[in-house]
Write a structure and sequence with these properties.
The complex is a heterodimer of chains A (333) and B (275).
Chain A: E1 2-10, E2 16-24, E3 35-40, H1 53-63, E4 67-71, H2 88-96, H3 101-115, E5 119-125, H4 127-135, E6 143-149, H5 157-163, H6 168-183, H7 190-203, H8 205-219, H9 234-243, E7 248-254, H10 258-269, E8 281-285, H11 295-308, H12 314-325
Parallel strand pairs in A: 3-4, 3-5, 5-6, 6-7, 7-8
Antiparallel strand pairs in A: 1-2, 2-4
Helix pairs in contact in A: 3-4, 6-8, 7-8
Chain B: E1 2-9, E2 14-21, E3 32-37, H1 41-60, E4 64-68, H2 85-102, E5 107-113, H3 115-126, E6 130-136, H4 142-149, H5 151-161, H6 168-176, E7 181-183, E8 186-188, H7 190-196, E9 211-218, E10 239-245, H8 264-274
Parallel strand pairs in B: 3-4, 3-5, 5-6, 6-9, 9-10
Antiparallel strand pairs in B: 1-2, 2-4, 7-8
Helix pairs in contact in B: 2-3
Classes of the chains: A alpha/beta (333), B alpha/beta (275).
Chain lengths: 333, 275
Amino acid sequence: MFREEPVSFKNRADQELFGVAHLPLVSNDERVRKIGVIFLNPGPGYRIAHRRLYVRLARRLAQEGYYALRFDPAGIGESEGSVDEAMLFNLFTSINKGRFINDVNDAADFFITRYGLEEIILIGLCGGAMTALLAAPYCRQKLTSLILLSFPVLFNFLEAEEKAAIAPAYARDIVRGYLTNLMNFKVLSLSAWKSLVRNIKDRGLHRLLARLLEVLRQAVSKDSPSFLHPNFNKLFLDVLERVKKYIEINFIFGEYDRWKLYFEVEFEQKIAKKWAEKGYRKFIIKNENHLFTFQESQDELIGVILGLLPPTGREISQVLGSAKEGGQRGPGC
Amino acid sequence: MTKPLFFKNKENNYHLFGFLFQPRVKNANNRKGVIFCDSIGSEKYFSHRVLVNFARLLQANGYVAFLFDYYGNGDSEGDFESTRLESYLSDTKEAIEFLTQEAKVEEVYLLGLRLGAVFASLVAAKEIGVEGLILWSPVIDVGEYLYDSLRSNLTIQGIVHKRIKFNRAQLIEQIKNNTPVVVEGYVMVKDFYQSLFDINLKTIRLRPESRVLLVEISNKVDSEKNGELDLVFKDNNQCLRVVIQDDPFWILKGTNQRYITSSRSLFEKTLSWLG
């Protein structure tokens, strides 16, 4: 049982930002803790997230007794402001450098004050996950945990593909992808052949062959380059080191998400394995992709997220409350 | 003033989410209201900011603009798999009623994008209170559109199963046999599919007095353009057909593309047509 209300508030740049709050049915029992979860927009996407993922998650969390807020920072959704970047990857880069962190902190202040919250958690997908991490040092003391879905350790996937020396793990992944495509529908796809011809025209056959050879060479190699990837987001490391001592950090990836591979190769294998204490937890959702598209696996995702949230104490209150009130419940969505 | 709100679909007893953009200036346009009939799924998601920016432009020019989410879409109540053609049409009618009562507009225009253009046309064909239709790159053959949308399911099968277990014809059969199929994270069920698949914009007959702006948005050269649009509303002599050269802003293919939040020539053309 929960209710929903549209909200608006001003950020520090005096722009009006909009969102939707999901509110559990109010309990007057003081033992029930008011815990808020803020969803941060993924990249250029707005507050519902791809495939309405945030809507489903927020509603489920509100049913479980949590306060949830989905809002749009400046220039996104219906919120005031504009995004002037001409290309999408420029926008992604600016997000991965902390474009929205002030708006997140203003949203957290609004959310805490409006509903009298005792604790807040930030959840973000992809660019939203990076925003959550980068905003964490500036949030008020009530931020206790981060839940980071499909976290991007590199600035830009496209540039990463083009510029980086190919690690064997990626090369094997690329070869697997080529073979899958070859064995499946793309061999019959006219648009795939058109795209190949266009690629040859744009980049030259010799370059494509050189890249293919490099991919194959690395795919059978056992060595992994130890240097930091040229597109590695160093801000991520700086902030992670700062906040992991006092904020619980949880990474969640879909099994088939390419960013999981980047996280494991570029961060865990090259950096985190040298740390005495990891200071974070990682969860993998089976049979899922970057955007958590599948309904069955979404249930697993919701289960993992609920397991990571601190208890509200609502269960004790409900048992005692229903005994006292004869099990009656108020209306809700 | 820009106001987010929930309003009720009284016929079906659920709540829909909307944004009301009320005019910033007082002029003759204040009595005209534009209701946005969105597309669904990823097209809705990727085009959202373009629609918002056009709503703001209308607001700045004295019009009332109303963006709302259909049941099971966006911020509205419900799950996508419970939606049917009837719910989309009923929601559009409720939006018209809400706008005329809440914002006191006297002339209602429906602006439909892609599949939303089909819903807008079906409502306009029956509702007397619709002054005109603005259709941005409308879907013409809905069955073909739904068939095309299954491509994403094949991609996911390739990733998860490393092969295609079911082709599109087999997926359609599954849907018809009551086995839901996931399309870009949205569950397509039999009732949804069957209520929509045989709709074709070419067969919809509008009332003769309906004003229509039919816009094809395309980045293709003339020879590759969709001549099918010429067959839509061909009996309606108040239908203005326009081609706007621009990228389709409802599609996202990758990060190496323009980040589109507005379309200058599309906005200018539509605004001037509204008068």
